[in-house]
Amino acid sequence: MESSDYYKSLHSLNALAIRVDGKLKDIVSPDSLPPQSSVQVITFTSMEGKEIYWHSTSHIMAHAVKDLFPDVKVAIGPAIEDGFYYDFDKPEPFTPDDLEKIEKRMKEIIKKKNRFTSRIIQKDEAITMFQNAGEIYKVELLEEIADDFVSLYDEGGFTDLCRGPHIPDTSKIKAFKLLSIAGAYWRGDEKNKMLQRIYGISFDNKEDLDKYLIFLEEVKKRDHRKLGRELGLFSMSDDIGSGLILWHPNGAIIRRTIEDFWRNEHVKADYKILYTPHIARLNLWQKSGHLEFYSDNMYSPMDIDGVAYELKPMNCPFHINIYQSELRSYRELPIRYAELGTVYRYERSGVLHGLFRVRGFTQDDAHIFCREDQIEDEILNILNFTLFILSTFGFDKYDIYLSTRPEKYVGSLQNWDKSTNALKKALELKNLSYEIDPGEGVFYGPKIDIKIKDALNRSWQCSTIQVDFNNPERFNLVYRGSDGKEHSPIMIHRALMGSLERFFGVLIEHYAGAFPVWLSPVQVVIMTIAERHSEFASEVYKILKESDIRAEMDLRNEKIGYKIREATIKKVPYLLLIGDKEVSENCITIRKRNGENVGTFPLQEFIKNIKEQINNRL
RNA sequence: GCCGCCGUAGCACAAUGGUAGUGCGCUCGAUUCGUAAUCGAAAGGUUGGGGGUUCGACUCCCCCCGGUGGCUCCA
Questions:
Q1: Taking Cα atoms as reference points, which of A214, A220, A208 lies closest to residue A54?
Q2: What pLDDT score does A164 carry?
Q3: A599: nt with nearest C1' to CA
């Protein structure tokens, strides 16, 4: 929640009743009430109201910090998606040691069963109070509040400017943990002073905390940077540079498989596949407006024979150029150009993160040029196509956002309304629930962002569908209509996976490195018990290769247990064991990476089976 | 970019300012052993780079490079 929102509705809270599991637990009554007082009832059942627990815990943390470091100034401390934080202004950095001390002090406060009480006071009175206490950040917040009254919450002598609500008393926190310390700008603005933020989480029982800590362990285990190295998928190198990805053989196999699938499906969906250069003359970027609107993300131009060229941060101008290479008729539309286009964008060093945020990446980009009357159908098509592609990779849950007109925009209000409604209508036709992100559209048009949810229910921004009024105008795009006159086409940008790099990173974490068979770099490892089985194993290998199955052989003079362990760690879906029995019966024994011993079968039966899985993209 | 933390062999990690080590992996040798680690040997390092303090620096200080947790931004 934005800090401004956070305090915006301070005035609406005059008194608070708290119910837990339907039973009235507490009424927090203010000492003084403005004339128009009312009672707000908050009902929550145990951790259903976890934000309230988290918010209350952040107060307790701030209380503990003030106890231990009286000179620290407190800023804000809200509940967030996973836990809470509080920002502090303290000259010396907090150390991990300090975290332990703070935790210890928090436990003492919790034990005291301090009641959370609220009171409403005059804003001016509050300002004086916080000014006297030296709490300059609270004063700054207070000064922005329009109302005459504000609410304060107190717990054991720690008083904070706060809208509430809170748990009845500190003892309701049964388990908590402080997780990390990080820098954060006051009010999120880098022009402001950097404060120290402590993150934490809390629960009303210990088991849930343990579960959460296990979840964090699982997140660590799935980290694509760790798995990327262990499985030979990708790397980055100091010699090459930050944010630039080397795709190793196993990663490259997965990428190629994704690309082949992507291209085939695009051809089926009547897209034309393009290839375009990585650099273009600076003039082009001037014309497209990128130089004006996007230069912060672009690299310095290079000089080629006295002409300035620029590394491409986007593919659109190239596709537009191809559109313009001929006169277009209304009969041709929609024209759908798709490209796995590699772009380079400057990203600040601090934001780079594995495959999730890089400086060179390949977008699964497409630009659709259509008539106004086709826009709804096209968006619906794209939406269907997106959901199909995503579900193929096991993503069936999404958060969808519709971003509307920002303050700085190009195009007519009429166009904005029309296309925003088209996006809305498509979402509603598909019966997809979405949230509106007001003012978060791109300057050139509204967009739909789809955040996919992975196996751990974490959200990732990948797909985006954007309507563009800017480029058709800047490049003066036209088509000849049935009336014989020139018309301006609508342009839609879309990326389904977003970028191959980020999508790959998400895939790695989603599957925890255990890719489905069709994506697995190595689908089968054939392993022998003893050296006398090598010949038979080689025959099996040859047949599998001929069947287009990605197989490897392990003929080493090692124990079978060792070979199994190694292949299992590499997350190879099928292990084929070959010993005396298999040779004499002319079959193979199958073991899966999850440890399941499937049994002994004729090779052809296995091939038929695995091919079926691969063809069905399982 | 900013704040904090980190940088030691391919990987994971040790080493109160006093000779740089362990495990895994790699290489070699032995073992031919049926469902997650056979035994042994050897190789492998200007401790990210530069400068300083010190008789002596992996260790302390400064600058740079890179990574990392966040802030902001985003595919």
A1: A208
A2: 77
A3: B35
For residue A458, the number of C-alpha atoms closer than 13 Å in the C-beta half-sphere is 15
What's the pLDDT at A15?
40
Cα pseudo-dihedral A447, A445, A339, A372, rounded to 10: 100
3-state secondary structure of A480: strand
User: What's residue A81's pLDDT?
Assistant: 85
Name A119's bridge partners. A152
| A440, A406 Cβ separation under 8 angstroms | yes
| DSSP reduced 3-state for A552 | strand
- Is residue A356 within 8 Å of residue A223, measured between CB atoms? no
Whether A18 and A27 have beta carbons less than 8 Å apart is answered as yes
Q: What are the mean pLDDT values of chain A's consecutive 10-residue runs (618 residues total)? A: 29 40 42 36 51 92 94 92 92 86 94 90 91 92 87 91 86 92 91 92 90 88 94 91 93 97 97 97 92 89 94 96 96 97 94 94 96 92 95 93 87 86 91 89 89 89 90 93 94 95 96 96 97 96 97 95 95 97 96 95 97 96
Distance between CA atoms of residues A147 and A142, nearest Å: 9
Work out the angle at residue A181's Cα, subtended by the Cα atoms of residues A176 and A187, and round it to the nearest 5 degrees: 105
Q: Which of residues 139-198 of A touch strand B (CB under 7 A)?
A: 180-185, 188-190, 194, 196-197
Tokens of A118: 């609220």
Q: Is the CB of A560 under 7 A from strand B?
A: yes
Cα-Cα-Cα-Cα dihedral sign, residues A511, A514, A517, A521: positive
Task: Provide, in whole angstroms, the distance separating residue A90's CA from nucleotide B64's C1'.
Answer: 28
Pairing state between β A272-273 and A246-247:
unpaired
CB A546 within 8 A of CB A564: no
Tokens for A261?
């699938």
The tokens for A135 are: 């709490």
Query: E-strand spans in A49-174?
Result: 73-74, 79-80, 83-89, 116-122, 149-155, 158-161
Tell if A498 CB is < 7 Å from nucleic strand B: yes
- Residue A190, classified by CB atoms within 10 Å of its CB into exposed (0-12), middle (13-18) or buried (19+), is exposed
A241 touches strand B (CB under 7 A): yes
Label the pairing between strands A40-44 and A16-20: parallel
Predicted complex ipTM:
0.94
In residues, how long is chain A? 618
**Residue type (1 letter), A221:** K
- What pLDDT is recorded for position A5? 30
Residues 6+ apart with CB under 8 A from A388: A265
| Of A384, A390, A399, A396, nearest in space to A434 by CA | A399
- Give nearest nucleotide to A531 (CA–C1'): B32
Strand B positions closer than 7 A to protein CB = 1-5, 11-12, 30-38, 65-75
Class of residue A325 by CB neighbours under 10 A (exposed 0-12, middle 13-18, buried 19+): exposed
What is the predicted pLDDT for the residue at A30? 37
